[in-house]
Design brief:
The structure holds 2 protein chains of 2 kinds. Chain A is α+β, with helices and mostly antiparallel strands. Chain A is built from 3 helices and 5 strands; from the N terminus they run βαββαβαβ. Chain B is α/β, with parallel strands linked by helices. The chains are: A alpha+beta, B alpha/beta.
C-alpha cells in the first residue's frame, strides 16, 4: 500500500477487518504521521500552532494491528 | 518512489536520513493512496505573496502573519482551476476546482476572526471560484442558500475567474483578465497527480489512477486506488477517501475468499458529506449527492455541526486511532437529515 494521508488508515484497517489475517499488509509512507488537514483552519484562527495538534503518529497503531509500516 | 504494474514491484528510498539506496518491494496487490501534489509551485507569486491552510507549515505562517503583519486590508479567498483527467467522465462529473470546501471553511471563520479582532468583518473578504458556482459539487440546493447567507453577511463573491494567473503584492490576477484587490491572499491550488504516476498503464491522462467504482484498476486487477490519487475521486474530499478505502478492503477480501461477491461487487455511490467550521463555535454540515445525479440535499448550520467536526478529529486521535466509519458517519447523516 502506497500511502499519503487520509486514505491510508482507512484502507489498512478495512483490509485487515475484512480479510482478518489472510493477507500481509505493508504500508510505505514518506511520513510516519497522519496530517489532520480538516481542522488546521480552526487551530490557526484560535491562535494555536497546528503542528502541535494536527499530526497523529500512525506507525505504532498500525503495527499493533499487524500492519508493517515502512 | 516508482511503481511497475507489470513487474509488480515498488521502488522507494527510505527518507529518514539522506543517503539510502533504492529499495524494491514485490507485491501481490498494490493500493495507491498517495494523495496529490498540491500545485502551489505552479502559481506565480504564491511564494512571495500567497497564504494557504492546507498543511501545518502554511497554517503556522498565517497564524504568525495575522497579528504581526496584516494591516487590515481586503482579503481574497479562492481556488485555482483543477485539471481533471478525461478518462473517467463516464463515472464522475467534471469539476472546475479540486474541492471548494477549504475556501468555504476559510472565508467563514476568517470573517468571524476579522469581526472579533477589530479588523472589520466579512465585507473585507472576496471569495472567488474558477467555475460557475462555488462548491458546485455540493449541489445548488445546498450552495445557493449558503452563498445567499454569506452575501447577506457582507462577503463579496466572484465567479468564472477560470484560473489564478498570478498573485501579486496587490491582489490576485485571474486567467479571465480580471483581478481582485487583496492584502491577504488565501488560495488553494490545482490538485495534480504525483509525477511518478504519470504515463503509467494504470493512469489517466493527468496521472490519476484509473479505477472502476469498486476502486479496482480496469487493466491490472491487482491494482487499487483510493483517496485523492484515484481518478474517480472528484472532488478531492475526505468522505470519498472513506468510501474508496472501504471498497478496496471489500475487493481484496473477495479475492482472498473472505467475503462474498454479493457483499463486495457493489459500486460506490458517491455522496458529499462535509462539515465546515464557520467561526464562533458554529459549523455547517452539507450532505448531497445531486452532483452525481442523486436526490439527497441537506444543509444544517449551528453549534451541533461544529461539535461533530471536533468529534471527528477525536475519532482519529483516540488511543486506538479508529478510522471513523459506519457509526460516526451514520450519526452525521442523521444529523443532516
Amino acid at each position: 500500500m502506497l500511502e499519503s494521508n487520509f486514505a491510508d488508515l482507512g484502507e489498512a484497517q478495512k483490509i485487515r477487518e475484512f480479510t482478518k489475517n489472510a493477507v500481509e499488509i505493508t504500508i510505505i509512507d514518506r511520513k510516519p504521521y497522519l496530517l489532520f488537514v480538516p481542522n488546521i483552519p480552526y487551530e490557526v484562527f484560535e491562535n494555536q500552532n497546528p503542528i502541535f495538534s494536527m499530526h497523529m503518529p500512525v506507525a505504532k497503531v498500525l503495527t499493533e494491528k499487524g500492519i508493517r509500516f515502512v | 518512489m516508482s511503481l511497475d504494474p507489470e513487474g509488480q514491484t515498488v521502488e522507494f528510498v527510505p527518507n529518514e536520513r539522506p543517503g539510502s539506496p533504492v529499495e524494491t518491494l514485490y507485491y501481490d496487490y498494490v493500493v495507491v493512496a498517495v494523495g496529490a501534489h498540491l500545485g502551489y509551485d505552479q502559481i506565480e507569486g504564491f511564494a512571495e505573496y500567497g497564504h494557504s491552510l492546507s498543511d501545518t507549515y502554511y497554517g503556522e505562517n498565517l497564524r504568525r502573519y495575522l497579528p504581526e503583519d496584516y494591516q487590515g486590508g481586503p482579503v481574497g479567498v479562492g481556488s485555482a482551476r483543477f485539471h481533471q483527467g478525461t478518462m473517467s467522465r463516464n463515472l464522475v462529473p467534471t469539476a472546475e476546482s479540486a474541492c471548494e470546501g477549504p475556501p468555504v471553511e476559510v472565508m467563514l471563520p476568517l470573517g468571524y476572526w476579522l469581526e472579533t479582532h477589530g479588523g472589520g468583518g466579512p465585507e473585507k473578504v472576496t471569495v472567488f471560484t474558477p467555475g460557475e458556482t462555488m462548491a458546485e459539487d455540493a449541489g445548488l440546493a445546498v450552495v445557493k442558500p449558503l452563498l445567499d447567507i454569506a452575501g447577506s453577511l457582507g462577503y463579496h463573491y466572484v465567479n468564472h475567474t477560470e484560473d489564478i494567473k498570478a498573485i501579486t503584492q496587490d491582489g490576485v490576477e485571474f486567467a479571465n483578465g480580471t483581478s481582485v484587490e487583496a492584502e491577504l491572499k488565501m488560495v488553494f491550488p490545482d490538485w495534480q497527480a504525483h509525477s511518478f504516476l504519470h504515463d503509467l498503464p494504470i493512469s489517466d491522462d493527468r496521472g490519476f489512477i484509473l479505477t472502476n467504482m469498486m476502486a479496482r484498476n480496469p487493466r491490472y486487477s491487482n491494482v487499487f486506488a483510493c483517496g485523492d490519487a484515484a481518478a474517480v475521486t472528484v472532488p478531492k474530499l475526505g468522505i470519498l477517501a472513506h468510501m474508496g478505502a472501504e471498497a478496496v478492503g471489500r475487493q481484496i477480501a473477495l479475492d482472498v475468499g473472505r467475503m462474498s461477491p454479493e457483499k463486495t461487487n457493489v459500486n460506490m455511490a458517491f455522496v458529499l458529506n462535509c462539515i465546515g467550521d464557520m467561526g464562533g463555535n458554529k459549523g455547517c454540515a452539507m450532505n448531497s449527492d445531486t452532483w452525481y445525479g442523486g436526490k439527497k440535499s441537506s444543509l444544517k448550520m449551528g453549534h451541533i455541526p461544529f461539535l461533530m467536526k471536533m468529534q471527528y478529529r477525536k475519532c482519529f486521535f483516540g488511543p486506538r486511532a479508529k478510522y471513523p466509519t459506519g457509526g460516526f458517519l451514520r450519526l452525521v447523516c442523521l444529523l443532516k437529515n
